[in-house]
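Design a sequence for this backbone.
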């Protein structure tokens, strides 16, 4: 249905842009196949008015003109719908080129590359690519989760979604109903921020823990979307990035490299285990549970108790 509507809107836009005189509803209905298939005049009128409003919302300037006979006609003048020339300096061109490279692993790669080619054909300056000429490093944003694209579209279109989500302390996923706000990549992982209808509060979800299919739902958002969504700050807080305390843990040798990268100190015990001192903040217990039997909390006692409780919850599931 979405494809059929997009084709109908495209045909209507082409008719309105291609005419030199206003076209009546009757003429438009006879020119567009989808309108010919409308069951009745009322059905066609409703369809046409919705399509006209959608095109205007997309930015097409549609004029309504009344001729001498009193009939109403419609047209979209090309001079009213032509964008002004796009001029970019070398730094702006470099920023766009870098942005296109960043998205080359996502399904946005085709759109990004096509837009860049059109801008270059229109005279955008060729900027020197520092990553391509002077370095072996290349900026990328990994997008491996199947949930990324439907959530990105839902954020853009402000559509509620449902999906099954597996928490770190649970073996079985639970369905969540979410009003998605924004997606953000942090430390190589994608996160969704939005309003969790079931919890009645703002929540952040890691995309790698979403199982199954993300489904869109009809209806408007029930919660106000904040002007600034601090996804990274929320995730940092849950992961202990804003910690003011430290914890001492035992980590099996050769495992837990993310923990090692954040450790304040690491001491080899010689028994197949290493002792680490790491920052301790809200959410560290959930992170430690992900490493399973490779981690043992030595202190503090409250962190050890939280990890044990989470492991017991997983065992019950």
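Sequence:
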């Amino acid at each position: 249905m979405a494809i059929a509507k997009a084709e109908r809107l495209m045909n209507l836009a082409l008719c309105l842009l291609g005419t030199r005189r206003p076209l009546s509803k009757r003429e438009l209905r006879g020119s567009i196949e989808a309108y010919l298939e409308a069951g009745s005049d009322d059905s066609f009128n409703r369809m046409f008015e919705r399509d006209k409003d959608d095109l205007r919302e997309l930015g097409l300037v549609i004029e309504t003109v009344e001729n001498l006979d009193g009939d109403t006609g419609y047209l979209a003048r090309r001079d009213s719908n032509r964008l002004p020339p796009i001029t970019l300096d070398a730094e702006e061109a470099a920023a766009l080129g870098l942005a296109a490279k960043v998205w080359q692993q996502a399904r946005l790669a085709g759109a990004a590359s096509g837009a860049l080619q059109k801008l270059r054909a229109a005279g955008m300056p060729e900027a020197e690519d520092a990553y391509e000429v002077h370095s072996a490093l290349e900026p990328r944003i990994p997008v491996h989760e199947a949930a990324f694209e439907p959530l990105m579209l839902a954020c853009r279109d402000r559509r509620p979604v449902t999906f099954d989500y597996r928490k770190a302390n649970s073996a079985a996923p639970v369905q969540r109903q979410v009003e998605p706000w924004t997606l953000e990549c942090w430390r190589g992982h994608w996160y969704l921020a939005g309003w969790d209808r079931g919890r009645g509060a703002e929540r952040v979800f890691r995309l790698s823990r979403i199982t199954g299919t993300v489904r869109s739902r009809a209806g408007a958002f029930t919660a106000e979307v904040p002007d600034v969504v601090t996804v990274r700050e929320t995730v940092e807080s849950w992961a202990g990035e804003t910690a003011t305390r430290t914890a001492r843990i035992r980590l099996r040798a050769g495992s837990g490299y993310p923990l090692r990268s954040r450790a304040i100190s690491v001491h080899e015990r010689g028994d197949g285990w290493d002792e680490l001192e790491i920052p301790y903040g809200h959410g560290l217990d959930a992170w430690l549970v992900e490493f399973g039997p490779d981690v043992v909390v030595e202190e503090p006692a409250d962190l050890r108790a939280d990890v044990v409780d989470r492991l017991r919850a997983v065992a019950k599931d």
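The longest helix spans residues 2-18.
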